[in-house]
Write a structure and sequence with these properties.
WD repeats lie at residues 63-104, 121-162, 163-204. By secondary structure, the chain is of the alpha+beta class. The protein is built from ten helices and 31 strands. It folds into two domains: 2-397, YVTN repeat-like/Quinoprotein amine dehydrogenase (Methylamine Dehydrogenase, Chain H), CATH 2.130.10; 400-536, no CATH class.
């Protein structure tokens, strides 16, 4: 593991309330009490050599449109837009435009990148403390201290829903990856799950939060990438502060909740990793290193997980459920607390994988994972940002994003913002063959890819993936093709030829500047990469 505080990532000593990396790219954003949102180079955070290069630009842009502290930053899933929320009662949406940056108000240094305000969303009567993008990036949900949540259409900038069932500050909001539900958490000691179709209440979850404290800045909740678990903070297990995992569709069955305890202060933020992980088998866990803190010492052992019948467990990959040594695909998540610590867990484990203690001088207020699944950013009210870089020995092997799409397709018959919402007209014989073999069009192709991966069938996986890449090239689905290429091949162009074929990369090129993947040359590159992949498996 590599751990680094980023001394150049600063809001001039002011508290940093939020941090978020741009999916599949080389930027991350921060929000500060100085009234600014800033965009930084993720490459400099991940790579000490790049950080040390003379003249390298670490700060890419400073956004000064808000008139109060900026409480939250969140990139859209496609990485093209950035949403912010502020004490000025506004949520703003920014987008990156061509051309050089211009100087920002109150700054003598011009911006390197040209981020411009796309929309200012007005309608809240108090601070906006959390925001969440819908899976297709068409909608933005906002949580406010006015006691309401709102949903906005990005294309028009209009509010399409006002959710006012809470009776106190709304401090957290999270969108289900399938796009069916929206969760809000409030100081009224409840989490409400809303049905997106008609904005009706599905459930009000109260029992884990009966002892919650109100002296929190935010309550950032999160969904697992397969949509099976909702993570919320400010809970208790006995007299110990805890987070709680609530299983999907079993919202009001306390015996099925999984409590994550061990912190000595309120848990105020939680973040699921965007990847699923092939967790080490029981035998390898017994012989391997389990826990460590940011100082290289063993974790203090105070963390515990306790549950009723609903304890979270991964799905066995290609072996019988009764095989104790079978690896499983499982979600990983991190939680941050007012006790100045952050812990990392695998769902279903009874102890944390990692505990960052004595690392921050104030509460950990936000956490966010990089696209590879191996990088974790943390921001604190002490005015600092840290990055933790894990490896396979600590988290397990990250399954490709297609495994998440396959899980969504298998569980719900669709894949959220995945292939199901990017369907194209039939344009080639290869696409017809792929859809006929898959049985359900591109969604079926995704499920078949995930199934082949789970069965450890390298040849079948290679065949399906090659067909799938050809289908995307013919359909000119540049966004999905970029995601797939980034996972397998790394950045486009000659510099990426030596890149490993199996994902786990953060510093991929920006979609707008990707010129190295032409449809005619794509198949050859994929065959080379997949030959390597088959040998590795």
């Amino acid at each position: 593991m590599l751990v680094d505080k980023l001394p150049w990532c600063s809001h001039d000593g002011h508290p940093i309330f939020s941090v978020h990396p741009q999916p599949g790219s080389t930027r991350f954003a921060t929000a500060g009490s100085d009234g600014k949102a800033k965009i930084w180079s993720l490459g400099c955070a991940l790579d000490a050599k790049q950080e040390a290069q003379p003249g390298v630009h670490k700060l890419l842009a400073t956004l000064t449109e808000h008139n109060g502290p900026v409480n939250v930053v969140r990139f859209s899933h496609n990485g093209r837009q950035l949403a912010t929320g502020s004490d000025d009662h506004l949520a703003c949406v920014f987008e990156l435009r061509p051309g050089p940056g211009v100087g920002s108000l109150g700054s003598s240094t011009p911006n390197i990148e040209n981020w411009r305000l796309k929309a200012a969303l007005r309608g809240h009567g108090n601070n906006v403390v959390d925001v969440a993008w819908s899976p297709d990036d068409a909608l933005l949900a906002t949580a406010s201290l006015d006691g309401t949540a709102a949903v906005w259409a990005i294309a028009s900038g209009q509010r399409v829903a006002r959710l006012d069932a809470h009776t106190n500050f709304v401090k957290g909001i999270a969108w289900d990856p399938v796009g069916s539900y929206l969760a809000t958490q409030s100081d009224d000691k409840s989490v409400i799950v809303w049905r997106v179709e008609d904005w009706s209440q599905v459930a009000r979850i109260v029992s884990p939060f009966s002892m919650m404290i109100s002296s929190t800045f935010a309550l950032r909740c999160s969904w697992s990438p397969d949509g099976q678990w909702l993570l919320a903070g400010n809970s208790f297990q006995g007299a110990t502060h805890a987070a709680v995992l609530v299983p999907r569709e079993r919202w009001t069955r306390p015996k099925d909740y999984l409590l994550i305890s061990g912190h000595s202060g309120a848990v105020v933020c939680g973040a699921f990793n965007p990847r699923l992980f092939s967790t080490p088998s029981r035998a390898s866990r017994a012989s391997g290193k389990e826990n460590g803190d940011a100082n290289g010492e063993a974790a203090d052992g105070s963390g515990e997980a306790a549950a009723g019948d609903g304890a979270a467990h991964g799905t066995k990959a290609g072996r019988g459920d009764d095989d104790p040594d079978a690896d499983a695909l499982a979600p990983v998540f991190a939680i941050g607390s007012q006790d100045r610590r952050a812990t990392v867990w695998t769902a279903g484990a009874d102890r944390p994988i990692f505990c960052a203690s004595r690392f921050f001088d104030a509460q950990v207020l936000d956490l966010a994972w990089t696209s590879s699944g191996y990088g974790l950013l943390a921001s604190s009210t002490d005015g600092t940002v840290a990055i933790f870089q894990f490896d396979c020995d600590e988290l397990g092997a990250a399954a490709p994003p297609l495994a998440v799409d396959g899980a969504l397709q298998t569980l719900y018959g669709r894949s959220g913002a995945g292939l199901g919402q990017r369907r194209r007209l039939v344009e080639s014989v290869e696409q017809l063959e792929l859809e006929e073999a898959a049985g359900k069009g591109p969604e079926g192709a995704t499920a078949s890819l995930a199934a082949a991966l789970a069965l450890r069938s390298a040849e079948e996986y290679r065949s399906w993936l090659l067909k799938y890449a050809g289908f995307l090239a013919e359909a000119r689905d540049e966004t999905r093709l970029h995601e797939l290429c980034s996972d397998l091949l790394g950045p486009p162009g000659p510099a990426s030829r030596g890149a490993p074929p199996t994902g786990a990369m953060d510093g991929v090129a920006d979609p707008a500047s990707s010129q190295g993947w032409e449809p005619r040359s794509l198949a050859a590159r994929f065959r080379d990469a997949l030959d390597d992949l088959q040998q590795l498996s």
